[in-house]
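Hello again,

I reread your note about wanting to compare the complex against the isolated chains. To keep things tidy I'm splitting this into two emails, and this first one only covers the full assembly. Below are the input lines as submitted, including protein chains and any nucleic acid or small-molecule components. They are followed by the predicted structure of everything together. The single-chain runs will come separately.
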Amino acid sequence: MGIINNINKAFDHRVRLGIMSVLMVNEHADFRALKELLDVTDGNLASHAKALEQAGYISVQKQFIGKKPNTKYVVTTTGKTAFKKHLDALEKLINRNQ
Amino acid sequence: MGIINNINKAFDHRVRLGIMSVLMVNEHADFRALKELLDVTDGNLASHAKALEQAGYISVQKQFIGKKPNTKYVVTTTGKTAFKKHLDALEKLINRNQ
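Full-complex prediction:
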C-alpha cells in the first residue's frame, strides 16, 4: 500500500481540484462563474468538467436562460465523499512535510 | 487571479506529489525505495522523476554499488521552495472545504 494510494487520480489536476473546491461550498456554479474563478480557458474547463462528470462526481444541467444556453454544475453525493477522502489523503501528505 | 493559480502544474500528479513528499523528509531516496513507497511501476516512476528533474526540482545521481547501477534522487533548493508553496496553496484549498 503506497503512501499516495488514497490520492484520487480523478482529482489529479489543479483544474479538477478547483472545480470540486468551488462546488463543495456552492450549491451550484455555472460555466462562466467557474471559468472566472479558476482563470482557465473554455476548452480546458470543459474537458476537466467532462472528466469529473464521467467519473460521476459532478452532474451537469443544461438549460436556456432567455435565449442564452446556460450550463450549470452540481457536485454529486459520490463526488462529495470521494473529494473529502482525497482531501484527507492530501492533508496526510502535507502533514508529513511540516 | 484564479483560486488555483498557486497550485504548481509540475506537481499536478499523485506520483510527483509522492516523490516530492518522500524527498522533503529524507536526504535522498533511491529508485527502488521510491518505487516501493509509492507502489508504482518502473516506467511510471521514471517518467515523473524525469519531469521533476527537468523542472529543476530534484537532481539525480547515478552510481554503481558494486556492479549494480543505483539511481539516487535528491530534492533541490528550488524544489523545496516550490513544493512548500504548492502545499500552502493546497492547504488553502482544503481549508475552503472544511
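For quick reference: The mean pLDDT of chain A is 91.

B.
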